[in-house]
Each structure stands twice: as C-alpha cells, then as structure tokens.
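We close this part of the discussion by returning to an individual protein. In the encoding step, the backbone of a single protein was reduced to a row of integers, each denoting a local shape. The sequence in question and its structure tokens are set out directly beneath this paragraph.
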Amino acid sequence: MKCPVCETQYNDSDPKCKICQFSELGKIFPTEEDAKYFYDVVIIPYREQWMGKCLSEKKLHEEKQKHNSREQHTQKLIDLIKKREENEQAVVSPTIAKSTVLTKKILTKKEAEKLPIYNGHVDIPHGYTEIGEFAFHEWDNRKVTSITIPSSVNTIGLSAFLETSLTSIRIPNSVTSIGVNAFYKCASLTNVTIAEGVTSIEMRAFCECASLTNITIPDSVKNIEVDAFKDCKSLTNITIPDTITFIDSSAFSGCRNLCGSPKLLTKDEAKKLPIIDGHVDIPYGVKIIVSSAFQEEKDIISITIPDSVITIGEKAFMHCKSLVDVVIPNSVTSIGTYAFASCDTLTNITISEKVKSISDNTFWCCKSLTSVIMPDGVTKIGSSAFMWCKQLKHITIPDSVIEIGQWAFTGCEELYSSKLVLTGGEANKLLIRNGHIDIPHGYRIISGFDDCNNWGNTDRKDITSITIPEGVKWICEYAFKYCPSLTDIKIPNSVTHIGRTFENLKLLTSIRIPKSVTIVALLLLVITIACGIISPKTT
C-alpha cells in the first residue's frame, strides 16, 4: 500500500507506514476515493508541515531535493491552493461529511499555531466554519501580515485577530458575523474588504485600528455595535448602506478625521449648515450625527432631525446653551452619552419609539428640562441620565424599563415633590428610629440613600434596617451601597425590578425578595455568596 503522506510503499499488514508513521487513511475513510480526496485537498497543502514532523531525515532530504528553491515550492503550493479552491465548488462525498476529521468546525488557537506561514501569509484550510476565540492573538512575533479566510467560514469569533500585525484582510461573503474585538488594536491594518453576507459588526470589532483609512460597509450589514470603529484615527472615508438599521452612538467615536460621506454629519460638515433665525435643518439622507457634531454651538435654538437619522453620537449637542426644543424622530435607535448634556434652555424632549436605552449622562444638567416622554420599549435608564435636571416635573417611565442606573434622577428636585423618585437629599431627611427607616408611601422608584450634596460618597452608618412600602416598582443600582450597617431589608410585592442594589452590605443577614421580582442582577447572588449572606428568600 502507498502511504498518502510520503508515498512510500509498505505492506498491507503493517498498521502504519514505517517511514513517517502515518496511519493509513483507509482506516478512517470507507473508500479509497474518499481518502484520495482528503489527501488532495488537505494533506498536500500542508505537506511541508507533515514532513517537518514525520519524515525521517533521509526522506526529508530526498523530498527537499525535488525543489530547487523555496520560491518554486511556494509557487507549487499556491497552485495546489488554487486547485483546492476549485474543488470547493465540487460536491463532497457524503462519506467525507461523516468523517471525524472534516466535521471539525472551530479553528482554535492551538490549531492556528500549527498553520504554515509563507512570506507573511497564512491560508486557513477549507472546512472550518468558525475562527475561534483568540485564534491568532499574539502572532506579532511571527510577522503574519495577511490571511486568507476560506468560504466555509461563517463566523469570526471573539478577539480572533486581536493585536496581530495584519496589514490587509478580505472577509468572504460566507461570513455573517464579525465578533467582539475581532480585529481590536490591529495597528498596522490599512485595508479591509467586507464582502456581502456580513450582517453584524460587533462591539470593538475594528476598535483602535489606527492605520485604517477607508472601509465600505456592504448592504447586508444591519447592525454596527458599540465602539466598532472607535479611535480609528486615520479613518477618513466610510461607505454606509441605506439598508442599515442600527449604528451605536459610539461606533465611530474618536474618528476625528472622518469626512466626505453624505450619510455622516461630522463637526466640520455641521458648521457649514445655515442657521436661519436660530433654526438648523439637518439634510435628509444623514444616517449618523457624529460625536460632538454640534457641541458648544450657542446660536442654535431649534433643530430639525430628519427621519433618515438612526444614530445621535456622543456629545452631539452638548453645551448647546440656546437649544430649546428637540423632537427625536422614530428612525433613531441610539442616543450617545452626554448627547444633550448641559443644554441649559432645553425644556422638552420627545424620544424615538425605537430607542431601547437612555445612555449614561444623556440629559445631565439640563436645568430647564420640565418634561420627558419616554416610549414603551425602553429597557434601561443609564447612570446620571437626568442628574441635576432641577425643573423636571413630568416623566413617563414605561413598564418595559428593567434597569435604572445610579444617580439617574439625583438633583431632580421637582420629582421629589411628586414622590415619583426617592433619592439623595430626600432620603437623608427621613426619620430614623433605632436605626430603622420606614419609607413613606407614594414613591415608585428608590434611587438611593447616598448624600447627593457630597456626590454620593458619604456612608450612612446609622441605618440598620429599611422597610420599602407597597407601590415601589424599581430599586435602582447601588441604592443602598452607602448603607454599610444594613442588616435587614423588607421588599414589597409591588417591586418588579432590582438593580445591583446590595453592594457593600457585608452585615446584611436577611433579604426577602417577593415573587413579583422578575429581574435581579447577577451581582446580587455573587455578593450574597462572597459575603456569607443568607440566601435570598421569596415570599
């Protein structure tokens, strides 16, 4: 029998070839045809790797004599790869599909390290469906500058190419998802081709790719997530399709040289828009109002945002001191942190029905804001989202909200009088009897027992137990963080959502969580175990 690796003849009775000790493929594949196919498309391209590991010195020497130079050998491999790519279009035998070798789907880091490198280039073999987590991470010392991804791959996994020396990459149309941190900090990456097929560019996928200058997003992409292209400081041009439905507000944060796209309204482009009697019309077709686009534009009183806009970037209207009224169209899906912060004269805001999260500090210190209409579907109100909105009297919080961040309503003095929110200063006025506080009826949100006058850094060591009344629905993140002496908390049946509430409560011995609670932060359980607290009971 001929060995499929070194092509040496050996007896059928021998279990392995004596030259290279490679098990005969007939033991793996049902037919010789299947074994031959595997040999052609898998073994040949990696012949040199097998030689280095398996062949005897004599055989290795004989084999290498067949090639006059490394260049000739490389060219032969290239030809074989082309042949292999042609074979990819052929129908694979059903028996091969059942093979334990070809059913391997994920290219792991360990397997990636075995791949040969030719002139800085790596070819990933056909058959893998996913490039696994950290597969090529820490390859800088190997000087890999380019990689061919086969058409069998449909997923690029978490941190797959993190901090590599890649200069270019082509993502085939078989790939549907570019994972979190996939090309994060690839500082030398200048050229990226994304073929039609990718539907999502995940968080930090190309973050801090400092040499990336331009990129075209195909029509198939629907989502560009958090920090996807953040701090790509050389990025000047990007093509965004009309079909895209979500771009996170921080997706292009720090791309200070970005310009030239009609779908991106940058700071430079915003300055060119005419201001007529204090009013600005953003042209239809703009998809993204880029970070800081109108920051500190003091002459704008009102602004029309067209329903082509889907993203309002971080600090987009921050410190627009004369801005009075804003209507956010229903096309908008993401509003960035500090987007309207410190807009001193802003009185009313209507939020898009498609917005799911109010980011941290979005309306921070809007001193004249009196009314906010929040649509059904919003699930999160971020930390300090409405902090120091002193005139805020009316706010609609839908039942869909499952998380309210720390200090979300701190300093909202008018809300205290309506007893919607209990926070900071009002909580500190409550009567304490023998270490116990009974929170009065009427509140819907318990924001915290921190001292807002001291920026929440004063511990309330005098409080040992708290009773929360019926009617309260939300307990915000870190609501009791600054009550380190608490030993007992009674939570009523009206509460449905509890944030990361019990941090720093090392003396807590009793927590009664009613069955009405649908969301309890995982951190609650972690802290309960870590601090030796009794397991929560349901009533």
